[in-house]
Amino acid sequence: GAGVSQSPRYKVAKRGQDVALRCDPISGHVSLFWYQQALGQGPEFLTYFQNEAQLDKSGLPSDRFFAERPEGSVSTLKIQRTQQEDSAVYLCASSPRGYEKLFFGSGTQLSVL
Amino acid sequence: AQSVTQLGSHVSVSEGALVLLRCNYSSSVPPYLFWYVQYPNQGLQLLLKYTSAATLVKGINGFEAEFKKSETSFHLTKPSAHMSDAAEYFCAVSDSGNTPLVFGKGTRLSVIA
User: Fold this and answer.
1) Quick one: which of A30, A40, A28, A37 has its CA closest to A2?
2) Which residues pair with B24 in a beta bridge?
3) Which among A14, A109, B32, B46 is placed 20 to 30 Å from A45, CA to CA?
4) Which residues have C-beta within 8 Å of that of residue A82, sequence separation ≥ 6?
5) Closest CA to B93 of B52, B61, B64
6) Residues A69, A52 contacting (CB under 8 angstroms)
7) Rounded to the nearest 5 degrees, what angle is found at the Cα of A82, between the Cα atoms of A78 and A85?
8) Strand ranges inside chain A, DSSP E
9) Per-residue pLDDT tens over the stretch B17-65
10) Would you place residue A1 in the very low, low, confident or very high pLDDT band (cuts 50, 70, 90)?
11) Is A40 left (phi over 0), alpha (psi -120 to 50) or beta?
């Protein structure tokens, strides 16, 4: 496809479960970002990759959050031992390079019960 | 650290009326400023960006924004609202384009026929 693709679109998890969220960026885009958007809030930065290198993970809220992009394309955001406060929409974005023009996916809405 | 304040979580205008969405920022270095739009069930889409060139920036769908350093503002305007403009609008800032985008909380625009 032409855009950023995220799966699943919706995810319901029981508290304590592990979840994995997938992002397929636009082909050829070097930079990839993960954002978390709580209800009624703007997106908040989680982490940034340039190719396979994770250059910034300062926004990850705890060590339960882990992201990878092993071949510099598809990325996975993993959340271990989910908590209710993890409920949010997780947005992935990619760009040709850097921060100047991000293309966002539709997000994965995570609900932790 | 940079931050963004969007005044008004909800703005309602009549079709054909002026649209004005307010954004104020704080940044310790020359900022890069962005407006993104989010339609229901879609990803965020870049409307326009300011990257230290012309202070009046024109974007897609007839929107424009003016960078005013003295007021630390980057308000979004459109002369005549259309029904299709109903969406959530986010202002974002990056320090010289080298740091992750920091988003405001968003303003929901409603257009009344």
Assistant:
1) A28
2) B5, B73
3) A14
4) A13, A14, A15, A16, A17, A18, A19, A64, A110, A112
5) B52
6) yes
7) 115
8) 5-7, 10-13, 19-24, 31-37, 44-50, 53-56, 65-68, 75-79, 88-95, 103-104, 108-112
9) 999 999 999 987 888 999 999 998 888 999 999 987 789 999 999 999 9
10) low
11) left
Contacts of B30 in chain A (CB under 8 A): none
**Residue B96 confidence (pLDDT) above 90:** no
* B65-85 confidence digits (pLDDT tens): 999 999 999 999 999 999 999
B12 beta partners: B110
Sign of the torsion formed by the C-alpha atoms of B59, B15, A103 and A111:
positive
In angstroms, the separation between the Cα of residue A100 and the nearest Cα of chain B is 6
Partner residue opposite A102 with nearest CB, options B9, B41, B46: B46
Residue that the structure tokens 């960078």 belong to: B67
| Chain A nearest C-alpha distance from B91 (Å) | 9
Whether residues A99 and B104 touch (CB distance < 8 A) is answered with: no
**Pairwise CA distance, residues B82 & B41, whole Å:** 20
Do A42 and B106 make contact, defined as CB atoms within 8 angstroms? yes
pLDDT in tens, A68-110: 999 999 999 999 999 999 999 999 999 998 887 899 999 999 9
Q: Tell me whether the omega of the peptide bond preceding residue A70 falls within 30 degrees of 0, making it cis.
A: no
Please give the structure tokens belonging to residue A38. 């709580």
